[in-house]
Amino acid sequence: MRVVHLSLSDFRNYESAELDLAAGPNLFVGSNGQGKTNLVEALGFLSTLGSHRVSTDHAMIRSGYDSAIIRARLANGEQSLLAEVQINRVGANRAQVNRSAIKTRELPRYFSSVLFAPEDLALVRGEPSGRRRFLDELLVLRTPRMSAVLADYDRVLRQRNTLLKSARASTFSSTAPRTQLSTLDLWDERMVEFGTQIISARADLVAELAPEVEFAYEAIAGREHAASLASQLSILSTGTDDPGADDAVDAQTAGRLTAAEIAESFRAATGRVRRAELERGLTLVGPHRDDLVLTLNGLPARGYASHGESWSFALSLKLASAAVLRRESSSGDPVLILDDVFAELDESRRGRLADAVDGFEQVLITAAVGGDVPAQLAGNSVIIRAGTILSEAPSE
Description:
Blueprint: E1 2-11, E2 14-20, E3 24-29, H1 36-48, E4 67-76, E5 79-88, E6 94-97, E7 100-102, E8 113-116, H2 122-125, H3 128-142, H4 146-166, H5 178-221, E9 227-232, E10 248-250, H6 251-256, H7 259-272, H8 274-280, E11 291-296, E12 299-300, H9 301-304, H10 307-328, E13 335-339, H11 347-357, E14 362-367, E15 381-385, E16 388-390
Parallel strand pairs: 3-14, 3-15, 8-13, 13-14
Antiparallel strand pairs: 1-2, 1-4, 4-5, 5-6, 6-7, 9-10, 9-11, 11-12, 15-16
Helix pairs in contact: 4-5, 5-7, 5-10, 5-11
């Protein structure tokens, strides 16, 4: 799959933008703040319905305007389609494919991309929520129906937490109203139902990502380094105060757990922490409390990896994601987006990364300095200046 043409209206600093894109590498060059990242952010949103830079959609609408439009002509072999999304400041966003309205949440099934940006350093150094989000976004790209499962789990989790908070003043042993506890049992089953699907899908995904991450990290950093992944599952914890804190299992072990075994462990863990949950008014076990543990040469990457190692590990996670998607997708390669990556790499790693992405159908790259990008990726270059797309470098 590749993007043939991108059109923007009132998106970020673009009043209007029209950009043709080629197969293979495409390089956007411009000083900081000129708008090059805005172009790839738009395509990332079309693929994931989220931004890698901000948590709210409104920030992507040009100041003073009510909506922004992202429109992309996509090609997959001989097939072509037009995907569009309108981001609204008030009211729900709207989407179309080939001028026919669709539900916005259906857009990712038509366009697949993997974006790496400086913000992704938080995958290694940040909180578990970022790593969970990384896995879940990839799950939806891989299996669109998981979007509904994740939404159902979040709904059940909110309802269950509300019930726990209402019962917090009561003790489990004596004064907690029977109706509250009976209702809690019902929410427990719904939580186990949806949570088991998420844990199982994540485990399968991590098992597939693990060898790809190892391969990608070696390709970027060299054979003297070994990167690995492990799933930390709160339902396997034996503690009650901080479930899951020390319970990491390797990807293959987690991948071998059956759905029945996961559900059984989930129910047992829920019973084990019931008193603590009532005291704290919070659900303490489930996929919302899990983590993806990253290790480098046997040590936790979060605490021991240098800046360069962390950068390479985060990049390896995204390259592994692209490898998994290209292997399974019927629509061809995902579009690979590298936002301001090469400036952070030394010359040898730049060359290795260029070799690693060389086989993808389309790669979009942003850089403040064109010379930071290896020549093999700079064939189709575009200059970006102050929200204007130039076909060639302007005269000084």
